[in-house]
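User: For a reading group we're discussing how well predicted structures match intuition. Take MFS transporter. Before you show the prediction, I'll give you the sequence so everyone sees exactly what went in.
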Amino acid sequence: MSQTPPSARGRHRAVVLMVILGCQLMMTLDASIVTTALTHIKAELGFTDSSLSWIQNAYVLAFGGLLLLGARAGDLFGRRRVFIAGAALFTAASLLAGLAPSAGLLVAARTLQGVASALAIPSTLALLITTFPEPGERTRAIAIYSAVIGAGASVGIIVGGVFTEYLSWRWGLLVNVPIGILILALSPRFLPETEPQPGRVDVLGALSVTVGMSALVYGLVEAAEIGWTSTRTVLPLAASVVLLVAFVLVELRASQPIVPLRLFRSVQRSGAYVGRILIVGAMFSTFYFLSQYLQNVLGLSPLATGFVYIPMTGMFFAMVYVVRWAAPRVSKPALLLTSLATAAIGMAWLSRIDSTTTVAWVLPPLLVLGVGQGIAIILLTDFGMAEVDPGDAGAASGLVNTAHQIGGSIGLALLTVVYGSAVHHDPAPGAVTQAHGYSTVFDVATGFYALAVLVAVVILVAARRANRSSTAVAMAAAAG
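Assistant: Thanks. Here is the predicted 3D structure of MFS transporter, as C-alpha cells, for the group to look at:
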C-alpha cells in the first residue's frame, strides 16, 4: 500500500489548518465587526440605545446557546459534514445581514449567523486535534488557534472600521460571502471526516440551556432599558433560573447528555471554563464600549477607532511565541495567574479615562491588556481540553467555545446595565457623563479580571496538590 509522502502530508495539514483558522476567524470577528459601525447602524435602521446591543447579543447568544448542540451533532453525524453545513448557512446568513433593510431583519440575520457558527465551530477544535495528534504539533496548533480566537474580536473592529469609513458597514458582513465560498470549496477535499457515533440528540437539554441563557440576557437587557422591577425584567430572569436548574437535572438523568458532566470533575477544566466566561465578558464589553467612547467622546472616525486596536491585536498574536517559549520553563497555572493579574492591571488603568483623555493615553493600557489576555486565552483553551477522552473531544470543544460566547453575551448585557445606571440621571448624556459611564463599566470589568485571578489561584493550588499526590504515588511504587 502506498503512503502519502511526508511533504504532502505537511501540505495537507497546512491546508486543514488554514481552513479551520479561516472559519474560526471569520465567525469570531463577526461578533465585533459591526462594533465601529454601531452609530451608523443606529441612525440608518432606527435602533434605540439598549436595542442596539442586540446586534451583538443576537449573534453571540445564538452562537453560545447552541454550541453544545452543534458539538453533539458533530459527534452523531460526522464533524466535517456538520462543519460544512454550518459554513454554508453562515455564508447565506451573512448575505442576508449585509442586505438587511430594517432593524428586525438585521437582528434575525445575526441570529442565523449565530446558529450557523454554533454548528461549525465545535468541529474546528475537534478536527484540529484529529489532524495534529502529535503532542508538540498539537500544542503549537492550539496556540495559533487560541490566538485567532483572542485576536478575532479586535481584528473585527479594525476590519469593520475600514469598511465603515470607505464603503459601508454592510461590507463588514458581506465580506464573509467570498470567504465562506472558499471554505466550502476546500473543506470536502481536505478536512478529515470522523465516524458518526450511534446515539440521539439531547433535545430537552439543548432547549433548556439555550432558552435559559436567552432569557437571562433578555432580562438583563430589559433591566438596562426599563429597570429591575418591571415584569419584562423579572419574568425572564426568573424563567432563566428555572430553565438552567432544569438543564442540570436533565443532564444528570440523560443517558446521552449534551454536556457530559464528567467533564467538570477536573478542577483545571472547570476553572478554565469559568475563567474564560469572566475574561471574555470583560474584554468583549470593553471593545463594545471603548469603541463608542473613542467615537462619541473623543470624536474619532470608525477607521481611526479601528487603528487604535492594531497594537493590541499584534500583542495577541505575539503571545503565541511567548507561551511556546515559557510553557516548558514555567508552570502553566503560575503563568495563567500572572497573565490574568497583568490583564487586571491593564483594565484598571483603562478605567481611569475621562472626557479629556487622549488617544495616546489609551494605547498603553490596551497593550498591557493584550499581553495578559493573549496569554490567558491560550492557556485557558489548553486547560479546557486537558486530558479529555477522544470520545468527549467534541463536547469539550463545545464547552470551551460556549464559555467564550456566553461570557461575551452575559458580560455585555451586565455592563450595559452598569452603563445605563451610571448615566441614568441624564436623558441625553453629554461627553462628560458618557465618559463617566464608560469609566464605570471598565471599573466593573476590572472586577471580572479580579475574580478570574481567584479562579487561577484555585487551579494553581489544585495542580500543586495533584503533583504532590502523583510524586507520593511514584515514590511509594519505587519503595515497594
